[in-house]
């Protein structure tokens, strides 16, 4: 193959014959293999230089011959390991390549060098870095263009505080909790403006529209007092994040430009005009913040930390978050909350609340797990007062419990029927019939018990 004048001359003749006779199957090509660098044989004890850089080695190959034979011959001739070397012409050469497939011509040079280690690709961005960036985005209000108006506390909590107040309703009374002066309230609003939530002291109908009937009441209430007693927390977010993560918000903020109803009004939702979402009074600011944390980071950090210092959401708060995710069609959040309830909140005194909540929230996973827990702890659960009180309000959920309990009861053992030849009484293989028994169907009668007890 190499450094053989006879073969090279023969190759030239074959090449000439090939030129005259077309692409003959035994057409050869003569080329040079050149060392790009010093080539060494490396061992555990010492290293020996076998080939000096820029040393040429003449070769002759069939055009259809694979380069794997060249790699094997070159390494063997120079006392090197085949796997330590790599060759390239225009591109790196592989074992399956041939001089014809890489368009190698007479006099071309193939370079050989020590095989380079494959560099590991750069590590992709850590998930924690993404989580950190999205957390910073959630805390940055500079470009936030969507607002959630949330009641500071649910109606039941306000009732417990001594007063009741419903935003947007026609009967709004002040709470009896301690309140600060107007000047101090304004100061609190200013200091809280750097965070993602602030107290909205007065609601203007034109700025935060509710229903048509409520706008006039809120407007008159706002004009009568500069500091309203309605406790509303303003939580901001990025509309682009909301619409990218949830189809509900994508539809809510869509502006149907040019589409006008027959009455002359636009067909867009009111939220699309001011990017203001009025949250139902049953959901607290904490629930909305947990929802936003999931939309921004695809996780809820307090659920992942098991430290005793970090208090996670209570069972009622998780059920409220499950309700919100179901109402706003946040499927992934709903799945996460169900998993958390099943894993850490399934107890004797909470399973009834969780099971009854599934009736309206379409939580099939949670419902199935609750039934399994009830069956595993049947006596303790059914004997608890909490379970009995909850089931009074959801009597339809008793049916699945009864069916599951029925499945636990073993089937009664069926009595073995007698065959026609199964009795020795009566002789001749006849059947024994008791007084008063009917055997018209040809089925053996059961023996009469000795007593009626």
Automatic annotation (TrEMBL):
Q: Where is the signal peptide?
A: none
Per the record, which residues fall in region Disordered?
Answer: 1-26, 155-226, 411-453
Biased composition of type Low complexity is found at 167-181
Record-linked Pfam families: BTB
Checking SMART domains in the record gives: BTB
Where in this chain does the record put each BTB domain? Answer: 214-304
Composition bias, Gly residues: 7-23
Q: Which InterPro entries match?
A: BTB/POZ_dom, SKP1/BTB/POZ_sf
Q: What is this protein called?
A: BTB domain-containing protein
Question: Which organism encodes this protein?
Answer: Cyclostephanos tholiformis
